Amino acid sequence: MASYANNYVFLLLCLGLSFCTIAFGGNFNTDFNYLFGDFRANIQTGGNVASLQMDKYSGSGFGSKNAYLFGRFDMQIKLVPGNSAGIVTAYYLSSEGDHHDEIDIEFLGNVTGQPYILQTNIYANGVGGREMQYYLWFDPTQNFHTYSIDWNPQRIMILVDNQPIRVSRNKQGSGVPFPTNQPMRLYTTLWNGEAWATQGGTMKVDWSKGPFTAWFSNFNANACVPSQSNNCVGFNGGTNRGLSIDSRKKLNQIYSKWLVYDYCHDVRRYANGLPNECRRKSPRRMALED
């Protein structure tokens, strides 16, 4: 959970902006709405813990009541154990419409004994295709681990147990789209992605192993909730400092050892030319040079 000091800085920054509301999320009962799945979506222990279940009839999901424009969002997640091939556990921010913005953390289910893949992606003005995938260096089904999205006008940082694994800087001045003006809601969903999620879709869901359950706990959002458009533009949340030397070293190790897909290296997918930011400088290099 965020410290009192961080919350205080957040509050001061927000009060300096017109029509801005500070949000300190922390309870599934008060901060989320049921999306789909009927009894498969459950809230327990007074709102501190939620579970999502999927069977052959449906998945399930929750969505935040607030739409946010910048902030840090932390969630502890324990993933589906055993053979979870074809199942996607998602934790993400998204706006609405054809030109939506989105920041994704998705866990791609695995065959028993194989590592989970954590996939990140960023959409801006409806343009995505910026996936980076990682093997997790621990078993995410045994215990809760904290997964975070830290988003402000200058950059997006995705963290695992408070360690950055991806840093994407705002390069709009170089023609690279970046989410800066569309408020986004936070979502947790469990759904059937067997068409693509495990070994390119060759491994399908084994329904005899279901129902499948993922767990979510200790949600926290230190974020700006706009009451009119674009009124959080100057809001950084007190988290716009660069990476520490230790974080850079660990990030380099993650890129070297655990990164398994980087869209900037996929010349087959982008046969007509890599995205603009890849031709200038790769996302991993921009992060390490910060």
TrEMBL record:
UniProt keyword annotations, A-Z: Apoplast, Cell wall, Cell wall biogenesis/degradation, Disulfide bond, Glycoprotein, Glycosidase, Glycosyltransferase, Hydrolase, Secreted, Signal, Transferase
Catalytic residue list: E102, E106
GO molecular function: hydrolase activity, hydrolyzing O-glycosyl compounds; xyloglucan:xyloglucosyl transferase activity
GO annotation terms (biological process): cell wall organization; plant-type secondary cell wall biogenesis; xyloglucan metabolic process
GO cellular component terms, semicolon-separated: apoplast; plant-type cell wall
Broad EC category: transferase
Main location: secreted
All copies of domain GH16, residue ranges: 22-216
PROSITE patterns cross-referenced by the UniProt entry: GH16_1, GH16_2
Coiled-coil ranges (or none): none
E.C. number: 2.4.1.207
Residues with glycosylation annotation: N110
SUPFAM superfamilies assigned to the protein according to its UniProt record, in alphabetical order: Concanavalin A-like lectins/glucanases
PTM comment: Contains at least one intrachain disulfide bond essential for its enzymatic activity.
Pfam families: Glyco_hydro_16 (PF00722), XET_C (PF06955)
Subcellular location: Secreted, Cell wall; Secreted, Extracellular space, Apoplast
Signal peptide range: 1-25
Family in the record: Belongs to the glycosyl hydrolase 16 family.
General function of this protein: Catalyzes xyloglucan endohydrolysis (XEH) and/or endotransglycosylation (XET). Cleaves and religates xyloglucan polymers, an essential constituent of the primary cell wall, and thereby participates in cell wall construction of growing tissues.
UniProt protein name: Xyloglucan endotransglucosylase/hydrolase
Species of provenance: Medicago truncatula (Barrel medic)
